[in-house]
Specification:
Radius of gyration: 19 Å
Strand order of the largest sheet: 2-9-5-4-3
CATH topology of the largest domain: Helicase, Ruva Protein, domain 3
Number of strands: 11
Number of helices: 6
CATH architecture of the largest domain: Orthogonal Bundle
Shape: globular
Number of domains: 2
Length: 265
Amino acid sequence: MPELPEVETTRKKLLPLFLGKRLLRIEHQDPLRYRNTERALGQRVEDLRRRGKFLLFALTEGWEMVVHLGMTGGFRLEKTPHTRVAFRLEDQEVFFHDPRRFGRIWVVERGDYREIPLLPRLGLEPLSEEFQFLSFWEGLRKSRKPLKALLLDQSLAAGVGNIYADEALFRAHLSPLRRGRELGKEEALRLFLALKEVLAEAVALGGSTLSDRTYQQPDGLPGSFQERHAVYGRTGLPCPACGTPIAKRTVAGRGTHYCPRCQGA
């Protein structure tokens, strides 16, 4: 599933394509997945923001188009066999591509997220100035969840998923099985800094494109942060720090990669 770096990269690439442009047509065959898109017709895009893993298109007349990429969704400049939605702008078409059909689009009154209950529950943006260590540590101290589960639940930091949780925990030298409330202040600070560092690096490198090449930037370019993965997807390969084979186990229902020696798991 595209995570914060992939969605932010998508936002940056879409911004010059959509900003100030009028949505002339939105074509699809699935009104249950792509809800009330007729409300957006004729509206101009005034802004394009990201919140966690959601893209928020601010439209004229008080409407907002919210897009979640799901597991395999993304935007393309040309049609593909898995094009699900076609957006006709004043000067070009842009296509929503989604092989597994988990992506969603809603057009709502701006800020009215009753149809999207996860969105108002998201925690702070981990690359924002509002994301401060003391509140992060307080969130850890209140939780009995394993760190991997806590990073994935979106309440501590919005937009973090499987890849970047594993990579941040490795850089912080923390086991994914440790409970949030067990961490001391120094350990919590390591995780806080590692999370910000990993996400910022991944955004700068356009996110991670894995072997299935599901994620691509709208212009077709791959991300390159996968070249820096220390643990994610490297089961059985040597840890880049100590040489111990990378292990994998299930935590919070998700495959979790870690170094048994460096992370003490």
